[in-house]
Specification:
With about 90 residues, the protein is mainly α. Helices cover about 70% and strands about 10% of the residues. The protein has 2 domains: about 40 residues; about 45 residues.
């Protein structure tokens, strides 16, 4: 049986290791940015809803707004696909 010229760690293993290192670096940078975002937006703000007012941490207001935006986007996409499938 012939030996692999690249040894036990072939080119595909090196690519996988590089990919994992890149993922870890991106994850670490994302985590650092998230922590900085939370620290920078920790002040309490007044939030006006239609029927009432409340005070909340700015980070929660931003995250809730982002979550609602994603939900509305997914709902619009689902309705669009549903209408296309009926035609």
């Amino acid at each position: 049986m012939a030996q692999d010229p690249n040894g036990p760690k072939g080119p595909s293993t090196k690519k996988r290791e590089t990919r994992e290192i890149v993922r870890m670096v991106v994850f670490g940078l994302g985590l650092i940015l998230l922590i900085a975002f939370v620290i920078g937006n920790s002040t309490t703000v007044k939030v006006n809803f239609v029927f009432f007012d409340t005070r909340a941490s700015l980070i929660w207001v931003i995250l809730l707004s982002a979550l609602l935006g994603v939900l509305v986007d997914r709902l619009a996409l689902a309705l669009g696909h549903r209408r296309k499938s009926k035609k």
